[in-house]
Amino acid sequence: MTTEMNPKDGILLEMRDIRIDGYSDERWHPIIKGVDLTLRRGEIMGLIGESGAGKSTLGKAAMGYTQPGCKLTGGSIMFDGIDLAKASDREKRNLWGTRIAYVAQSAAASFNPAHRLIDQTVEAATRRKIRPDAESRTDAVELFRALQLPNPETIGSRYPHQVSGGQLQRVMTAMAMSPRPDLIIFDEPTTALDVTTQVEVLSAMRNIVEDFNTAAIYITHDLAVVAQMADFIKVLRFGEEVEEAPTREMLTKPEQPYTKSLWSVRSLEKPEVKGEDIVLSIDHVDASYGPLKVLHDVNISIPRGRTVAVVGESGSGKSTTARVITGLLPPTAGTVSFNGKPLPAALKDRSKDQLQRIQMIYQMADTAMNPRQTVYEIIARPLEFYLGLTGKAKEARVMDLLKMIELDESFIDRLPSELSGGQKQRICIARALAANPDVIICDEVTSALDQIVQEGILKLLLRLQKEFNITYLFITHDIATVKAISDGIVVMYRGKVVEQGLKSEILAPPFPEYTQLLLSSVPEMDPDWLTNLLEARPV
Amino acid sequence: MSEQPETYAAAAEVGAVRKRRTRLERAGLLLKSAPPSAWFGMIVVGFYILVAVFADVIAPYGEAQIHPIPFAPWGGEFMFGTDQIGRDVLTRLIYGARNTMGIALATTLLSFLIGGGLGLMAAINRSWLDQLLSRFVDVLMAIPSLIFALMLLSIFGSTVTSLIVIIAVLDSTRVFRLTRAVAVNVAVMDYVEAAKLRGEGLGWIMHREILPNIMPPLVAEFGLRFCFVFLTIAALSFLGVGIQPPTADWGSMVRENASLIQFAKYDLTAAITPLLPAAAIALLTVAVNFIVDWFLHKTSGLRDDH
C-alpha cells in the first residue's frame, strides 16, 4: 500500500492512473484517460491545455471531487496518506476548505453577496475550530496585508460588490489561505481580469504561496501566466498527458509537437504596411451615455486594407467607439466619415448599402448568434438581405463561405450550441464576410478563446484581409494579438486617445506613461518576467 | 474520439456535438419521459378534443331539440335527464364542449396575438412606445377584469364575437406583461444587436430573432391563460351575459339547472345534474394544468441533467 510511503519524500499528492467519465448524449465518455500526477510539499504545478482537455476536471479530482455528470472510474488519489478516491464524503468534507482549498475562476460568482468579506474569509477556519475566531480575524487582516490589498484593516468589512474584481480574487486567495491548507487549487484565477490587474494578483498569489510553503496546482490556458507561477508544467490534451517538465526546460525545449505548437502561438507577427487611402475616419467625436461623457474628442483614421488596433483597459471607451461607428450610439459631437463622405449619425438613418459596408464581429460568439438558428440560416441571411441571393446561388455561396473559414458543409445544419468556441467565432466571421464589407469591426474577438484557437482565428483574419482587401478595426486589450494582426495602433485611456500611429512607432520607446504600464503588464514567456517587472516598477 | 490530429484544425475542434435526431424521434423521447400526471392530462385533453370535434356524431339528439318532459330523471331515454325546458343534458354537455372550448381557444389565441405582438414591440423599441403601451396596460389592469367585461358586454351586446374580442383584449394585458418581461432579456443579446446593425426591420427581429427564444414561457402561459379564459367565459355565462341560448355551454348549464340542487334529499342524481358541466370544466382545467406543469418543468432548467 502506498500509505506506507516514506513521508520524507515530501510527496503530498499522488494521483495514479486517474480515469474520469462524463455523461452526455445518453452515455458515458472518457474525459480523463489515465493521468498520473505527483506533487510535493511547497511545489507549484502548472496544468495547461485547451478547453475540453480535462484540466479543470483533473484539478477538481485532486480534491477527490467530481462535478455532477462526471464520475471517477479508476485510479487512486493519495493525499497525505488518505485515498480520496475511496474516502467517504464526510472524510473529504473534513479536508476540503481546511487542508485542501480551491480558488475559482470567477470570484464575483463565488462569494455570497449577502455577507461581509471578512466573515467569509474566516468561515472555514472558525467552523472547523482550527483556531479561535478572533485570532482568525487578526490573521485575515495580515493575509490581506500580505496580498497587498488596500486598507487591509477595513476592507474585510465590505461586501463583495464593493471591491473590484482583482481585489475580490485576492480576498478569495486569502480565504483559501486562512486555514493554512497544504494544497491550493487555482482554477484560471486571473482569466477574467485585465492585464494590468492580473499582474498584481499574480504577484500577490505567488508571494503568499511561497511564504507559507503551500503546494498548489495552477490551472490555466495562458502559457505566459503559468510560466511565472509554476515550478513545473504538465500539458494535457484530450484527457491525456502530453508532457511534463520543469518550467524552464519546458519553455526552452518542448519535446512534443503539440507543445511546440502551443509555444509558437505568441510568435505570430504581421509585418506592418502603411496605408494612404483612408476608408473610415472618426473626427472630433464626443459621446455620452446619458449625462456620463465617455468619449472625449476622439480622432481615428483607418486606411483601407489595413488593421488598426484599438487598445486600452476596460472602461477606456474602446467598445463605445465601435458603437459610435456602427451608429448604435449617435455621437454628441463630431462625425464619422466613410470613403470621405459623412455617415448619418443614427443607425436608422443609414442606407442598406452603408450598413452593408461596415460589419461587426462580437467578443462572445455565444451571444452573437441566435441559438435557435442553424449555421446555414445564420450565414445565409446577409446574403439574402443585402445581395438578394436565393435558392441555388445562396446555397453555393454559403458553402464557399464555409470553405473560406476552413469549415466544411457538415456544419450547415448545426445549432450554435453544437459548436466549439473557435468554430462559433468562425461562423460569426463568415456572417460578416457574407455581406462583402469594406470594414469589419472586431470587438475583442479572440479574448474568450484558448491561445491555439486564437492563433487560428487571427491567421484566418489575416488571410481574408489579404484576399479581399478588408479593413479591420480591431478592439483588444491583448498586446500579443495587437502585434500579430495590426498595422496601426490607437491607445485609449478614459475615453481619450492617448497615442496613435503605426505599430512600430507605438511599440517603440519613448512611451507615454499609460502605454508603458499597459505594455509592461503583458506577461511574457519568460519565467523571470514577473520578478524582473516587479523589481523595475516603483512600489 | 477516433482521430486525434497532431496539429490544429478548426473543423476538428471539440464542440459539444450531439447526436442528430429527427423531430419525430425527439417527440418520442419527450413523450417517453412524461410523468403519469402529464399522461393523464394529455389523455383527458385528447378526449375533450375528440368529443368537441365529433359532437354531431356522438350526441344522441340535436343541440336545441326540446323534448316534452322537462326535468326528466336520469336513465332510460335521457342518460343524464333533461333540463328545465326539456333539452337532453348529455347532448348539451357534448355540444358545450365544442362551443365553450372553441370560444376559449379563439379568445386565447387572439389575446396572445395582441398581447404578444405589442409586448415584443415594446421590448424592442424601449422608447415612448414602450411607456405608452405599458402605462395603458397598467390602467386596464387596475380595473377588475370581470366587472370591466360585464360592463363592456352590456354596452356592446353579448354576441360571440364581442365576447371573444372583449375577453381577449382584457386578457392580453397579462400576456403583454409576460412577453415584454421575457423579451427584454432577449432583446439585449448581441444577436439582436447584430440583426439591427444588418438593418433588419421590426417584423424580422420580433418574429425570427426574439420569438423563437421566448417560446417556452409563452407556451406555458398559453395553457394557463386558456384555463382562465375558460373560467371567465363560464362565469360570464353563469351571470347571463356570456354565450346566449340556445347555444349550449357549460357555464349557462350550471346556472339554468342550479335550482335542482335543492332536490338533493329527494333525488341525488337530479342534484348532480348542474354539477356535471361544472365537473367538466374542473376536469379540463386540471388536465391542462398538468400538461403545463410538465412543460414548465421541462423548460425551466429546474431539473436534473443526468
Polypeptide structure, described:
The complex is a heterodimer of chains A (539) and B (306). Chain A is α/β, with parallel strands linked by helices and 539 residues long. Chain A is 37% helix and 26% strand. Chain A has 2 domains: 42-64 and 97-267, Rossmann fold, CATH 3.40.50; 278-508, Rossmann fold (3-Layer(aba) Sandwich). Chain A has a 6-stranded mixed β-sheet, sandwiched between helices. A 6-stranded mixed β-sheet of chain A has the order 16-17-18-13-19-20, sandwiched between helices. Chain A has a 4-stranded antiparallel β-sheet with strand order 2-1-4-5, covered by helices on one side. The N and C termini of chain A lie far apart (51 Å). Chain B has 306 residues and is mostly helical. Chain B has a single domain (36-299), classed as Orthogonal Bundle (MetI-like fold), CATH 1.10.3720. Chain B has helices at residues 23-32, 36-53, 55-58, 89-125, 128-142, 145-156, 160-187, 190-198, 202-239, 250-256, 268-272, 275-299. In chain B, helix 4 packs antiparallel against helix 5 (128-142). Residues 1-6 and 301-306 of chain B have low confidence and may be disordered. Chain A binds chain B through residues 23-25, 51-52, 68-69, 237-238, 257-258, 261, 326-328, 347, 350, 352, 355-356, 359-360, 362, 364, 367-373, 381-382, 385-386, 405-408, 411, 413-414, 417-423, 426, 431, 435, 452-453, 455-456, 460, and chain B through 1, 4, 6-11, 13-20, 189-191, 193-194, 196-200, 208-209, 212-213, 305-306.
